[in-house]
Amino acid sequence: MPSVAFLGSHPLGERCLDQLTSHDAFSVELVVTYGPGEDTWWDGCLYDRAERMGHRVVTRDSVRAVLDYDVDYLVSVYYPDVLDAELLAHPNVAPLNLHQAELPRYRGQYAFSHAIMNARADDHWRYGTTLHVMAPEVETGDIVARRFVPIAESDTARTLYDRVCDASVELFREQLTTLRDGAVRRVATPQSAYNGERYGDTGERLDVSKAIPVERLADDDEATQLAVYDKIRALDFPPFEPAYTELGGRRVYLTATNYGDIFGRTAVGDIDDETGRIAVPQPDGRH
User: Fold this and answer.
1) How far apart, in whole angstroms, are the C-alpha atoms of residue 107 and residue 141?
2) What are all long-range contacts of 172-179, with beta carbons under 8 Å and residues at least 24 apart?
């Protein structure tokens, strides 16, 4: 029976641990995650869920406890820390990561936003999730499997994220057979075998580019309108601050999502005299 140390967080981590736990071919030896009560932007707690399942659980500051267990796999799902060479070399078969983006196209963070902003220029209207072998250089390891969903012209970063989370669970469930059979190394493909754009590590913070000048919003050039529309969608990911413009000394948020007034400033949504909300109309376009 293959043994696993599971490193993760987030509702996706919970869902994948559910899949792993319910599969009678695996033994989960240890779970490493955020501690209960830590401040995270998502709902739920993998630590509490793993404890309820009867797993041994430690927090991220005790990640080296993994070395005390003889495991066939390290499985990482939304684990935030980079693992050192000793940890990566520890499992008998492979260290694996479920990356919420298409490799080798997008490494790093904020890939949902970059994919929306790049889709039109690249004519690349799909978004991927990737199970890959972990390597010392982050997200460069061989690819075990990928799954794709379409990027719609109406998508925001958050709607795309929600849809890809579902696809990621499906991919993870499908590939448990590959792990059970010990076929990971046999089916894994080097990233150099894939064609297409490579955007490298996209982890630069997006906060500095969230302001959109009102003059750009008012520009009637079609290309500018589409670029602004795509940027607004790409930065629309509750609960994080979305794109905005400045009107009359006030910050006005630009988004299709109703955040409510969670930032203590002007709310977002459909503009009217009472709320001061602003809506972003969808232009005619490809999808």
Assistant:
1) 11
2) 172/16, 172/19, 172/77, 172/98, 172/131, 173/19, 174/145, 175/131, 175/144, 175/145, 176/19, 176/20, 176/23, 176/25, 176/26, 178/144, 178/145, 179/2, 179/26, 179/73, 179/93, 179/96
Q: Judge whether 242 and 232 are in contact, CB under 8 Å.
A: yes
In sequence order, the 6+-apart residues with CB closer than 8 A to the CB of 236 are 156, 157, 158, 242, 243, 255, 256, 257
- Alpha carbon 202 to its chain's center: 12
Local structure of residue 195 (DSSP, 8 states): -
- Three-state DSSP state, 3: strand
Query: Model confidence over 74-127: pLDDT tens digits?
Result: 999 999 999 999 999 999 999 999 999 999 999 988 899 999 999 999 999 999
Would you mind telling me the total number of residues written for the chain in this entry? 287
| Cβ atoms 88, 96 nearer than 8 A | no
What's the per-residue H, E or C state across 81-120?
A: CCCCHHHHHCCCCEEEEEECCCCCCCECCCHHHHHHHHHH
Answer yes or no: are the C-beta atoms of 179 and 26 closer than 8 Å. Answer: yes
Quote the tokens at residue 76: 């990482």
pLDDT (tens digit, 9 = 90+) per residue, 121-158? 999 999 999 999 999 999 999 999 999 999 999 999 99
CA-to-CA distance for 113 and 206, rounded, in angstroms?
Answer: 9
Contact 226, 285 (CB under 8 A): yes
pTM, two decimal places: 0.88
